Amino acid sequence: MTLRAVVRGVGHFLPARVVENAEFEASLDTTDEWIKSRSGIERRHFATESDTTSSMATAAAQAALKDAGMDVDDIDAIVVATSTADLTFPSAATMVQAQLGMERGFAFDVQAVCAGFVYALSNANALILSGQAERVMVIGAETFSKIMDWTDRSTCVLFGDGAGAVFLEAQDGAGTSADRGILATDLNSDGRHRDLLYVDGGVSTGTSGYLRMQGNQVFRHAVEKLASTAHTAMDRAGVTADDVTWVVPHQANIRIIQGTAKKMNVPMERVVVTVQDHGNTSAASIPLALSTARARGQIKDGDLVVTEAIGGGLAWGSVVLRW
Ligand code: ACO
After folding, report:
1. Contact, 21 vs 32, CB < 8 A?
2. What range does the domain containing 274 cover?
3. Is 156 a catalytic residue?
4. What is the CATH number of the domain that holds 219?
5. How far is CA 219 from CA 116, 214, 288, in A?
6. Residue to mutate (ligand 1; options 219, 255, 256, 310; most atoms within 8 A of CB)
7. Contact in structure between 308 and 249 (CB atoms under 8 Å)
8. Of 173, 205, 226, which one is at a domain's C-terminal end?
9. How confident is the model at residue 1, as a pLDDT?
10. 87 and 47 in one domain?
């Protein structure tokens, strides 16, 4: 018998405010056509007055619990992937714990920017495999609208807000790639690239700061590193491109998604794409895409799913799982 971290439920929350590309044309030297053709993004959701990273994360967790048919008392641990926690501390995860009414277990944040959700999934998997928790709520939640420089057309048109959650449970498997659950993970970072993508604020400046990105430089790293990490995780899982039912990539840019799928030898018909409706929601993008794909009827029980993501750090990684 091999212990596996199996997906029991998935859910998401998107704030009510939807902003179409054309809305930026009034305040910036940009066009719907530029944004769509360069990034694939058509619209995004932005937090309203009443939405925070923790409130959206809580709503996504509640949806995942409902999907799993379980309740708050069944959660042993909460891991929240975010770079936009409500406050410097306490963690978004402990805020979610309180908002859910959970009075036991433990909760903590993982910060790996857009790669945050694959880092959080990998850490949750390790908690389960090491026996520290049986059921873990893994959440990606972001309010990137709070760290946008609204005068910078090269970044503010690309990002959105939202949250997604996946509820994992320890189950016995046979130790083969036919098992349900997380089959393999691969994590990487290279801190030499910090200037490609960062926020120019924090405790050293006394401000929360704004996102700064050399988009075309990040782009250069993205396809190669994403395909490479996906291949590493697939090799570890003992699966090939032909076995993959769905690639669920980080939703930053349709051209990165297409380039990576091509390098992975997976046709676009087997890639989940939500970037047109959500924009880049950083750590929330993969769980949002997983939940959306389930709602669309794309991902079915038993499907082999490969997730991959890259973001500030640079940090990147991949998780292979059978739903
Ligand atoms: N509207 C019109 N023109 C624009 C806009 C805009 N909104 N933004 C930039 N431009 C201009 C630039 O000024 C530049 O003009 P110039 O040639 O006169 O200097 C021109 O468009 C081309 O700019 P590039 O940055 O070279 O355009 P590119 O084709 O690379 O697309 C983009 C830009 C969409 C940002 C792309 O590089 C990208 O998606 N990069 C990767 C982003 C990413 O994956 N980030 C990682 C995750 S995010 C995270 O971790 C937080």
Report:
1. yes
2. 181-322
3. no
4. 3.40.47.10
5. 18, 9, 22
6. 219
7. yes
8. 173
9. 86
10. yes
